[in-house]
């Protein structure tokens, strides 16, 4: 599970919108995005609705202005939560690949 908060103004000011899942169109939620707080999870942000346009990968942390996430402008119109994949725990054997010999 993830949580991200978008703020219209820099420094986590102004109107804000919290999101905890994929959102294909953020335009009705806020007009611009100048700061972001990622409380949990990793997120992919897109400048256009429907996961289009330039994209930005954000992990947990505070981004007080759009330049902090390398944004070209204050436009964020859709977002996706990146699913967490657990690695194989240490000490457990990795699956083995058994070669198959072909006979003629």
Q: Which characteristics define this entry?
A:
mainly beta; 4-stranded antiparallel sheet; globular; 104 residues; 3-stranded antiparallel sheet; Gamma-B Crystallin, domain 1; 7 strands; 0% helix
Give a verbal description of the structure.
Crystallins are the dominant structural components of the vertebrate eye lens. Belongs to the beta/gamma-crystallin family. Keywords: Eye lens protein, Repeat. GO terms for molecular function: structural constituent of eye lens. With 104 residues, this protein is mainly β. It has one domain: Crystallins (Gamma-B Crystallin, domain 1), CATH 2.60.20. 0% of the residues lie in helices and 40% in strands. Strands 2-1-3-6 form a 4-stranded antiparallel β-sheet, with no helix packed on it. A 3-stranded antiparallel β-sheet has the order 5-4-7, with no helix packed on it. About 6% of the residues have low confidence.
